[in-house]
TrEMBL record:
Homodimer. This is Homoserine O-acetyltransferase. It catalyses: L-homoserine + acetyl-CoA = O-acetyl-L-homoserine + CoA. The gene is metXA. GO terms for cellular component: cytoplasm. GO terms for molecular function: homoserine O-acetyltransferase activity.
């Protein structure tokens, strides 16, 4: 990955009042900023993703995809608290010259957005043509469009919500309970909490997929098994994949940040924050999403002025926003450029057949 780093030496005050003495922001860019500086696509990534959007959102972002570096200047920054280079719990605390671990200050979605605003200013990007994000990335995108309505021209929100639900918080707390049950989490070592994180990922995966997803993809070919089921192996496999690339401390803090998501917080005496969004907006829901059900996206579309709402069918549940790229190419293409979309979609389908 061609990771770039921006070191901001200024202290960064978090919403709850704690201060990070400096920020390191990891990010990637693809393509070239045009003379008018009006071809920026900014991607806010989800929970355990990274700045390489060409890797985790293939089919929507890529050389031959809808969002390609020939037309757009694409920016994706690793979020505050994440494992992939931006300041996070395993970063060094300058006051102690040791990693922060569980002394890292708590942060929220607005703090994540504030870090991205700092990067946008550093890159001299005053206008974002398209701001897009799904799940936790959608929560960030929404907050940014509220915080800086003039900067964001078009907004695409996928499988996300205005307030994180009790259902979503319960899933996250269950994952943190699994991490806490692993006593190595309190050892303050880079490998601390790995077994707990593996169990947490298994819990999370159940919310990302759907009953039918497992019923088909993990179906046994024999009726005679009493152990070693495909579904069991799959959960272990997915847990191992995560612990080989992520740490329990970042995961802990990021789920806490997601729980705190509430666009109405400390805005009680203002108008509905969604009504202040000026960006042309597309909101996408997924019929089988157990974690962010379509009712949450309908709420967004009902309150963001002029927003379009789209509900797509997917076998993959919540993860459909990452998987259903052919469908999203068609619908997002129609949203951003209806006149030329048909040709682009036909080209996409031909290249991906």
């Amino acid at each position: 990955m061609n990771i770039k780093k921006y070191i901001c030496k200024d202290a960064y005050k978090l919403e709850e009042g704690s201060v990070l003495p400096e920020l390191e922001i990891a990010y990637q860019t693809f393509g070239t900023l045009n003379e008018k500086k009006d071809n920026v696509i900014w991607v806010c990534h989800a929970l355990t993703a990274n700045a390489d959007v060409f890797d985790w959102w293939k089919g929507l972002f890529g050389e031959n995809d809808l969002f390609n570096p020939e037309e757009y200047f694409i920016v994706c920054a690793n979020i505050l608290g994440s494992h992939y280079g931006t300041t996070h719990p395993l970063s060094i605390n300058p006051a102690t010259n040791e990693p922060w671990y569980l002394t890292f200050p708590h942060f929220n979605i607005r703090d994540m957005v504030g870090v991205q605003q700092i990067l946008a200013d550093h890159l001299e990007i005053s206008e974002i043509s398209i701001l897009i994000g799904g799940s936790l990335g959608g929560q960030q995108s929404m907050e940014w469009a509220i915080m800086e309505p003039e900067r964001i021209k078009r907004l695409i929100l996928l499988a996300t919500n205005a307030v994180h639900s009790p259902w979503g918080i319960a899933f996250n707390e269950s994952q943190r309970m699994a991490i806490r049950a692993d006593q190595t989490f309190y050892s303050n070592t880079p490998e601390g909490g790995k077994n707990g994180l593996k169990a947490a990922r298994s819990i999370a995966l159940l919310s990302y997929r759907h009953y039918e997803t497992y019923a088909i993809s993990q179906q046994e070919v024999t009726q005679n098994k009493t152990d070693d089921f495909k579904a069991s192996s799959y959960q272990n496999y997915q847990g191992d994949k995560l612990i080989n690339r992520f740490d329990a401390y970042s995961y802990w803090y990021l789920t806490k940040a997601m729980d705190s998501h509430n666009i109405f917080r400390n805005r009680e005496h203002q108008e509905n924050p969604l009504t202040t969004i000026k960006a042309q907006t597309l909101v996408v829901g997924i019929t089988t999403d157990l974690l962010f059900p379509p009712s949450e996206q309908r709420f967004l579309a009902d309150h963001i002025p002029g927003a379009q709402f789209l509900e797509i069918k997917s076998f993959y549940g919540h993860d459909g926003f990452l998987v259903e790229t052919e469908m999203l190419t068609k619908e997002i293409g129609a949203f951003i450029n209806p006149q030329t979309n048909d040709a682009k979609v036909n080209q996409y389908i031909k290249l991906h057949d």
